[in-house]
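Comment thread on ticket #2218

A.B. wrote:
> Attaching the input chain for the structure job we discussed in standup.
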Amino acid sequence: MLFNEHLYSVARRYFLGRCAGVGLGAISLAMLESQLRRSNADESLQALPHFAPRAKHVIFLTQSGGPSQIELFDHKPLLNKWAGIELPDSVRQGQRLTTMTASQKQLIMPARTTFGKYGNSGATLGEWLPHMAKVVDHLCFIKSMTTEEINHAPAMTKFLTGHQIPGRPSVGGWVSYGLGSENKNLPDYLVLISKMKRPSDQPLYDHYWGSGFLPSVYQGVKLRNAKDPVLYLRDPEGMPREVRRSMLDSLHHLNRLRHAESGDPEITTRIQQYEMAWRMQTSIPELSDLSDEPEATFRLYGDDSRRAGSYAANCILARRLVERGARFVQLFHPDWDHHSRLSSWCVARCRDTDQASAGLILDLHQRGLLNDTLVIWGGEFGRGVAGQGQWDSPDGGRDHHPRCFTIWMAGGGIKPGITYGATDDFSYNVSDNPVHVRDLHATILHLLGINHEQFSYRFQGLDFRLTGVEPARVVKEIIA
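C.D. wrote:
> Ran it. Output below, let me know if you need it in another format.
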């Protein structure tokens, strides 16, 4: 290590020696520009929020794999009439298909569920979501979501970061950067991943909750679905707290000296993370211990909420986190990718999530937290109307479909009990009020009091935004 540092030092001296006055001047100017940019960034953050926020917290219930809108939300009764008929070219309009179905005929498969209308709003839901049916008057369904990416990793990357290529900050990272947290004993942005009853072959990549080009302090902190939510958080046996504090103080001093010498912003991140870990040693164990929850809580979220790491238990943790001031909490529940056996596997995922999602809405509402907590439920895309495999077989499934899908939102300034947007009779194309992923991001930021067009971070000479450079709009029609 020391030898490598020596080589680096020699190379740096050689470079500076070859640079003459103009080169040194340019380097000094670049350093001043960097310092000024950091100063300007701090001033821009001081202006946040840009206006009064409707939401203070976000819980993002991320359903990874592409839940089928045709079975769950987007009722299309005419599909029964057209069952087994090839999808017309006038509807498909050259839509790209994955390699899994490109070589087969696109034969229409009707919904495997029956639908009903629920609540005063008359929202339509499939029979696999009986608990959600009880809370529809709190929800806003967006049935006209659309994106371009047809495969999971790029679609989920875009759904969460605004761009299909990894390297951009996630929406939670942006919110952490812009607003921080109300509780300095907890990270701004926390991530919970469901502990599945059966292994899932669908990966969840770290960049889904990463900080991208933002300082790494803004990335999501993943809580493990195990006994210790955060590894190495406990002090070694026999180490008194005062000894740990003294060690951290000394380390803090050394890091400050190093930062003054190098100006590396990651050193500041390291200092902040050490201090956060110190505070989390008391806050996280208390947070993740559900033994103080009454029996009524477990009945509300369902029996699976007693299983550590389950989606239902994570929903309770999400509520506990926003109660304590956490800014952005993201749950990931994988295994919604039903290319086959949709009738059994999709039912299983609904059983995992239906009661807990509804329970979370009711719990937040009862505690007065729903007004300023924005809850989002959805995945990276939807499913196609054509059956994958034999359309009339119990083993049939559906392929990916980015052109239209459904999500729902609740609380945090969202109009309750409405449905926004619509698709054609095949749930294949958006027919009314399209909402692109960029529009969703703009709306989330708006509800948090942030103008997405004025919220940027300079990286490699460019001012980057979550919503990018293409047009994005705040969906004001769904805001109360």
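A.B. wrote:
> Thanks. Noting for the ticket: Residues 46 and 178 are 9 Å apart (CA to CA).
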